Amino acid sequence: GADMNEELYSTLKSKFGFNQFRHRQKQCILSTLMGHDTFVLMPTGAGKSLCYQLPAVILPGVTVVVSPLRSLIEDQKMKMKELGIGCEALTADLTASAHEEIYSDLSSENPTIKLLYVTPEKISASGRLSSVFYTLHRRGLLARFVIDEAHCVSQWGHDFRPDYTKLNTLREKYNNPPVPIIALTATATPKIVTDARDHLKMQDSKLFISSFVRDNLKYDLIPKAAKSLVNVVEKMKQLYPGKSGIVYCLSRKECETVQMMLTKAGLSAEVYHAGLNDNLRVSVQKSWLANKFDVICATIAFGMGIDKPDVRFVIHYSLPKSIEGYYQETGRAGRDGMPSYCLMLYSYHDSIRLRRMIEEGNTTTGVRSMHLNNVLQVVAYCENVSVCRRKMLVEHFGEVYDEQSCRNSKTPCDICERQRKNVEAIRLFDVS
Ligand code: ADP
Ligand code: MG
Ligand code: ZN
After folding, report:
1. 307 CB within 6 A, ligand 1
2. Residue limits of the Helicase C-terminal domain (predicted)?
């Protein structure tokens, strides 16, 4: 009722420092607070975390958050601690004594931990953790399960994690009384959503979807030529002095090649990929967050969960692996809502390279043909000369989009911009 509403707003303000809910945050929060299983689809940067962090603060008990990556977990834990919210993370690198401290807090009468982040491996591998969950549940202190990045459960997603599939037991194991589950993802292709809901036994969940249109992103595409990358980055530097961007590459080696190319042209660039050791990775991340260099040359290992609001450009030096991947990767630009630039440097040859990588990969025929099909969709996106890019991107997620909105926006895509110019040219011709 009214009290609940008031409490939501006062907690939003006092604990998180925000005045308003965004998008469908409030509906999602109410749904999960009422005990419904809840499935949340919102684009990256929309503010999904608040949908479980705020309920965790309001209700007694411990909220368990499953998250796929340590970097993501560390990032969230730091934020929660800054806000004075009791938060711990169980990850593989913890010392034995740190483990003990967490377990002993969870077994205490009044755990100080409100949010417990865990990797899915931890849940499936640790019998001790399961028994801690059981005890919490019995004592009525297991507030909620959160499955962040829920698309990882689906084979059809770009981020399949086998350990996520083991989360399919949560719904049944903790059913008396039921512990609500909230699953969140920025991947909204209907096939993956259905698959994930089935897997997690969340068929009865309430589904919340917000628009995937990113009004402040300008999507562009040009053919990839020898100097195009350097030229574009130089232009970006003039347009957005002191700001930085991402150049996505297909492989570690390509990251290094691109870094060299940029450095030779007097630009500053660092590489980021799964091959870096932890220290290096953290230090690159830090200086990138502080805009210490112009460009980060990265494989898709970079990005998930790194919340930098002022990324002004994302350039694909090589083809993304899928339309979804492209949407996610470009989505890291302009999280602050300011105009930002997303450029694809296209070469058909890259699609052949990508297909070769997939064909050589070690996987089942079904998964391979799905990946190949994904690449074909990307090629179709790139070779398209008539359909608005925003339209193509969001319609991939099942959303309907009127390209007039793109055409009339401050950041029309290259296709819409060209058509706008054509229309203006014809008008001029009419007058004369
Ligand atoms: P997602 O998980 O959907 O990608 P996050 O939960 O990481 O997004 O949130 C993205 C950013 O938006 C964070 O910096 C967060 O603090 C901010 N944010 C979330 N909700 C609000 C709100 N209601 N008002 C202002 N900022 C918000
Ligand atoms: Mg998130
Ligand atoms: Zn358009």
Report:
1. yes
2. 228-376
258 Cα: distance to centroid of ligand 1 (angstroms): 32
312 near 244, Cβ under 8 Å?
yes
Atom 18 in ligand 1: residue holding the nearest Cα: 47
User: Which of ligand 1's atoms lies nearest the C-alpha of 148?
Assistant: 2
Q: How far apart are the C-alpha atoms of 242 and 248, rounded to whole Å? A: 20
Check if 47 has its Cβ closer than 6 Å to any atom of ligand 1: yes
Reduce the DSSP state of residue 359 to 3 states and report it: helix
Distinct helix (H) and strand (E) counts, the chain: 18, 13
Q: 153 near 167, Cβ under 8 Å?
A: yes
Q: What is the pLDDT averaged over residues 7-36? A: 95
d(CA 141, CA 335): 35
**Is-contact 63 52, C-beta < 8 A?**
yes
Any idea which ligand is nearest the CA of 24? Answer: 1
Q: Which residue is closest in CA terms to ligand 1's atom 26?
A: 18
Contacts with 221 (C-beta within 8 Å, 6 or more apart), sequence order: 343, 344, 345, 346, 382, 389, 414
Q: By alpha-carbon position, which residue is closest to atom 5 of ligand 1?
A: 47
How is the beta sheet containing 62-66 ordered, strand by strand? 87-90, 115-118, 62-66, 142-148, 181-185, 38-41, 206-209
Indicate if ligand 1 lies below 6 Å from the C-beta of 42. yes
Query: What pairs with residue 344 in β-bridges?
Result: 221, 316
What spacing in Å lies between the alpha carbon of 407 and ligand 3's midpoint? 6
Residue 308 has what pLDDT? 87
Instruction: Tell me how far apart the alpha carbons of residues 46 and 290 are, in angstroms, rounded to a whole number.
Output: 22
User: Could you tell me where the beta strands, DSSP code E, fall in 289-348?
Assistant: 295-298, 313-316, 340-346
Q: Are 269 and 249 in contact (CB under 8 A)?
A: no
Query: Residue 335 CA: which ligand is closest?
Result: 1
% of the chain residues with pLDDT over 70: 97
How much of the chain is in helix, strand and coil states, percent to nearest 5? 50, 15, 35
- Output the CA 43–ligand 2 centroid distance in Å: 9
**Nearest-atom index, ligand 1, CA of 22:** 23
Residue 167's closest CA among 202, 142, 132? 202
Neighbours of 215 (CB within 10 A): 15
* The model scores a pTM over 0.80: no
Q: Round to whole Å and give the CA distance between 20 and 47.
A: 12
